[in-house]
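Annex B. Sample input.
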Amino acid sequence: MKILLTMNLPWFPAVGGANKCNRALAEGLAARGHEVLVVVPALAVPSRWSREEVRQELGSRGIAVRVEEGTDTFQSAGVEVVAVADPARLRSELAERLRTFAPDRIVVSSEDPSQNLLDAALKAQEAPVIYLSHTPAFLPFGPQSFYPSERRARLLSQVAGIVAVSRFVAQYIRRWGGLEAEVFPFPLYGPGPFRDLGGAGTGDFVTLINPCAVKGIALFLALARSLPEVRFAAVPTWGTTPADREALAALSNVTVLPAADDVERIYERTRILLLPSLWEEAFGVTAVEAMLRGIPVLASNVGGLPEAKLGTDYVLPVRPIERFTDRQDANAVTEPVVPEQDAGPWVAALTALLADRELYARQSAAARAAAHRFVAGLGVEPFERLMQTMDGRTPSPAPPAPRTKAVTAGEAAPGELAALTPGQRALLMLRLRKRTAQKPEDDVQDLLSERGLS
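Annex B, continued. Sample output.
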């Protein structure tokens, strides 16, 4: 089968869950004999890499890059990747590749809040379209949606099928979008064997990956201050701001580690992994990665994180984020209002694990066993079966009206604004302020497009 996958995320480096999931899926399908083409942006927005640095890193891994006007093309584990330099050209490049590649299935990832890639895939009418949903934040409906829109919600009713990364996401889609989604746990953890790093006791640090507001840096800093004798590590990725780095640098017991495409480099230095997220995570890839290596994980009780803990201990309470400000941080992400957190349960759990060797050994063994059972049942074969069933081009019934109503820049009325969550109102107002010179009919999709998100 010829499969085209597109996402508004770069292929390399893959340091986020969605990147890793999509890359593992594409490479797994290629290994099963499918012809797979991927169309992606060359860089993230904003990016800490230059296009030349990405080429050099790929070259160091023995991957030859063909540089053409506006694109870098290369082969990765049997997958042909077309990386588009200019985000504004991503849609047109996708349309051209759909025409010339003539796929049997088109797979569109949710990390494109304007749904511009999905719109292009549906309009091309080249093949049935399958939508991969990795997070509620980029869905066009429901209370967790950053960019709610009835029009974009209707696009989802036209796909041949929706695939969700977790039961939590599938339930969210059913509740707020009125659509059914199939759950597919992505086989992104590698074939193993996985070193028993917890049992070996090689790790020095209590680690947080992607320290930022939504990922619970406030709790992390509180733990580091409460336990000055404990060595902590932070691994900045897409959400970490200069202010976050300053806060980390101010604590002598916190070490900043560079992000790594090879997760083993992080986990071999980790004794306990923290996942104190304050927003509703879709799943928790890093939880399973760490548990496979016998590293106990302390995770918050929000979103899909309890699901990712696979029935193991230490799912801890937090006060989740409920609203956002009208300010953007240095990464162009809207700043949340972070509720005051009670670090007490986290301090108690962490202290117990570090002080009691027998308790740590039991938790390490339980985490490793649960993760190995989970991963043993993963593979791309279930996705192949889903592709076979998702073969229709007839739109599914339109969903009921989303619980959060779309608001265009020129049509927002008081009643419509009231339907938005505080975070969504903050996002809308911020964008409206920046678009006072725009015509009334220009809607939120234009705002996303000019930010390189379409």
